[in-house]
Automatic annotation (TrEMBL):
SUPFAM superfamilies documented for this protein: Riboflavin synthase domain-like
InterPro entries named in the record: FAD-bd_FR_type, FNR_nucleotide-bd, Riboflavin_synthase-like_b-brl, SIP_FAD-bd, SIP_fam, SIP_rossman_dom
Protein name in the entry: SIP domain-containing protein
MF-aspect GO terms: oxidoreductase activity
Domain FAD-binding FR-type: 26-130
Membership in a protein family: Belongs to the SIP oxidoreductase family.
């Protein structure tokens, strides 16, 4: 590293220097469905396993892997999903699917049953956000809920977590658990997310904000937090998990 780059890094905000980006080798894995569990009317949890899961790595709560349907055919499609949980000892990878009635992965998940095969690849990298920020704000729609739930389970006691989330149906509003001091606000729709964040008084101390969901909504949430509320622009990630009117949108993160 040059002297100039060292000098520049010293003047970066602490929040930026604390976030680490890690690259992984992309490995394609053929797995088998072990268990399937409904999680309200709009979600289905699928637990995968198999010898090829050995060596799987997911270092961050908002990692995404490629879930591949109809591999090797003209109908092959790839969609991005959060590794909800990985148990190396048990050899199990858990994914949660939103059953939105459209798309190859959602259609597959709706009929998934033990014994079926599944193909995944990745994650190709991780953005590791430390858990010891004084507070964590997690905002998102149904597609963000697996990452939110995973993050909450990772946070230690002594921190504060604020969740603002929207899901398609009242019965999708599941209990969320964390050792952190947890506040959960369920709202209706993307406008509800924006209204709730606008009304929120950000806590004191160094905090990290994470938002994910529809592209325009995530961008609006980032602008609201940084431009209207003065939150540190280096201490926020706003991810576009999907885009209205665009099938197969590739997730994008704004930092």
């Amino acid at each position: 590293m040059s002297t100039e780059s060292v000098s520049e890094s010293l003047f970066e905000p602490v929040s930026l220097r604390r976030v680490q980006r890690v690259r992984h080798d992309i490995v394609r894995r053929e797995l088998r469905v072990l268990r399937v569990e409904p999680l309200g009317p709009s979600f289905r949890r699928v637990v995968l396993g198999g010898p090829e899961l050995h060596g799987f790595v997911s270092a961050s709560f908002d990692d995404h892997l490629k879930f591949i349907t109809d591999p090797g055919t003209e109908a092959q499609a790839m969609r991005d999903y959060t590794p909800r949980h990985y148990d190396a000892a048990a050899g199990e990878l858990t994914l949660e699917f939103v059953l939105h009635g459209d798309g190859p992965a959602s259609t597959w998940a709706a009929q998934a049953a033990p014994g079926q095969t599944a193909t995944v690849a990745g994650p190709r990298g991780s953005t590791v956000v430390p858990t010891d920020f004084a507070w964590h704000l997690l905002v998102g729609d149904a597609t963000a809920l697996p990452a939110i739930a995973r993050r909450l389970e990772e946070l230690p006691a002594g921190t504060r977590a604020i969740v603002i989330a929207t899901v398609p149906h009242q019965d999708d509003r599941r209990p969320l658990h964390s050792a952190a001091a947890l506040e959960v606000q369920w709202v209706d729709g993307n406008q509800g997310l924006l209204d709730a964040v606008r009304a929120l008084a950000l806590p004191q101390g160094e905090g990290y904000a994470w938002c994910a969901g529809e592209s325009r909504t995530s961008a609006a949430l980032r602008a609201l937090l940084v431009e209207e509320k003065g939150h540190d622009r280096y201490a926020i990630s706003a991810a576009a998990y999907w885009k209205q009117g665009e099938a197969g949108h590739k997730p994008a993160r704004g930092q």
